[in-house]
Amino acid sequence: MKLTNLKALNEARAAGKSVMLFSNVETGAETLSIDGQGSGDVDITLALREAATRAHNEDRGRLVEADGQRIFIQIFNPARRLVIVGAVHIAQPLVPMARLAGYKVTVIDPRGAWATPERFPDIEIDRRWPDEALEDIKPDSRTAVVTLTHDPKLDDPALTVALRSDAFYIGALGGRKTAGKRVERLTEEGFGQSDFARIRGPVGLDIGAISPAEIAVSIVGQITETLHKPERAAA
Fold first, then answer.
1. Per the confidence metrics, is the pTM higher than 0.85?
2. Pairing of β 124-126 and β 103-108
């Protein structure tokens, strides 16, 4: 890798940006793309862009032969993030499961009795009000947001910020009756059917989960499905 590209790559990664390096394996030509904006000697054709999108979503590089070029696409994505609103019992098994799946986890809950290091060791705990915390976190296309408090005073502010973000997954605890009331409240905030369709509620895959650990499994499974098979998750 060229030194100029290496320096730009390191700076971009430190800033939490998504980076792709296109390298011609025969000529050594390179193009560095930061958050979709590239500059360099490799001509980024439509075929390469499509391949890069797939590589980006899969978090792994690939060799592409297109338009008479053999290009290796390297992916340098920032860590995927999971923001959990509500330091409840389900959150306790969900945190380690999500970490094993490669997520950087943050737990938000202003209730001091719930959000403690003893219950959530070695995890970032944010005790601010959920909307304030999420405004600072800035959910992006690599962020999942899950609300678990079952309390509209906490869940609704978080969902309001999440729905106005690029979060790839938004899940909310609660049955159909709870979801119906949530739709009524969020409608008053100016949201519509396309927004409500983004909310996975009841949260998690329908696997008959009962215990907190089983529900956590269903949530991680649904997040994974949405990440890698968005067309199936939306069906």
1. no
2. parallel
Please, what are the averages of pLDDT over each run of 10 residues along the chain (235 residues)? 86 86 92 86 87 85 88 91 97 97 96 92 95 95 94 96 96 89 92 94 94 97 88 56
Outline which parts of the chain fall under CATH 3.40.50.720.
Answer: 80-233
Residue carrying the six token digits 């907190």: 212
Superfamily of the domain at 80-233: NAD(P)-binding Rossmann-like Domain (3.40.50.720)
First to last CA, the chain: 42
Cis status, amide bond into 139, omega within 30 of 0? no
